[in-house]
Amino acid sequence: MAAAEDYFKNIESVHSGNLEVRLAENNGEIDAAQALRYKVFYDEMSALPNKDMLATKRDYDRFDKYWDHLLVIDNSKNKIIDQVVGTYRLNRKSEANKNQGFYSSEEYNIDTLLNYPGETLELGRSCVDKKYRNGQTMQLLWRGIANYVFYYDIKVMFGCASFPEISKELIKEPLSYLHHYHLAPKEFRPIALPHRYINMNLISKEEVNIKEARRVVPPLVKGYLRLGAFIGEGAVLDKQFGTTDIFIVLKTDQVTKRYRSHYELDKSEISIL
Question: What is the distance between the alpha carbons of residues 26 and 21, in angstroms, rounded to a whole number?
């Protein structure tokens, strides 16, 4: 957890009923987040675990030890393994440069983002327990991210999001829609690595059925787009997770303008979605 101590000193956790959002405070809480990730990604979504993951029932990688882990906790439960019902991983450029870099650089060339002035934030490993997939839980996750963005003065957020399909034929319309209508400006546009690049321009702009394409776009991606997010160039096949990944880039100036007044009035009442 890169800077959790300073974070807790300055930003209070956010509560909604029995639920609370805050950063993980210890390895036990990170372990609970990894258990939730395994439950969602491998048990529910049929990702392919390695032998160690299968034995421990945990999703983990080399990045976990230095990313911050945002948690939604159900305080009505007794054990931390049951309490963690939502999670996001957060990786600031200032920390990544001192450690092992960015997860998304394994799929995309992100040089334009690395050179972008100011602090940037990579988001990843987002998941919510099936029983808690409702507006309240997602609201809390985004409140936690908003607090983090304000505190560290994040200029750009980015990360990979996924379609739960790997067939281009099934998702060619939404991919084409995103390419034609939401492609990031060149000055901060990530591009899929050449050996992993999947062309998203599969249907001409004139032929795209916008209404149908938007219907198929995953809910998380729709949420990012509502905030003004852009899409990187090219998609990537993730064989481990059985998904087609796209790259999300979101400049936070629109978010901060929209919610700064709420933050200044009451830090516990920030709402993005």
Answer: 15
Q: 4-269 adopts what CATH topology?
A: Aminopeptidase (3.40.630)
List the chain domain ranges.
4-269
Mean per-residue pLDDT, 128-135: 92
Both tokens of 70, joined, read: 């945002």
Q: How far apart are CA 183 and CA 271, in angstroms?
A: 26
Element of type H or E holding 93: helix 93-96
DSSP 251: E
User: What Rg do the C-alpha atoms of the chain give, in angstroms?
Assistant: 18
Q: What is the pTM of this model?
A: 0.86
Q: What angle do CA 261, 267, 269 make, to 5 degrees?
A: 80
At 150-192, the pLDDT tens digits run 889 999 999 999 998 888 888 999 999 999 999 999 999 999 9
User: Tokens for 267?
Assistant: 């830090």
Q: Are 256 and 149 in contact (CB under 8 A)?
A: yes
Task: Please write the tens of the pLDDT for every residue from 202-239.
Answer: 999 999 999 999 999 998 899 889 889 999 999 999 98
What is the residue-wise DSSP string for 3-54?
SHHHHHHH---EEETTEEEEE--SHHHHHHHHHHHHIIIIIIT-----HHHH
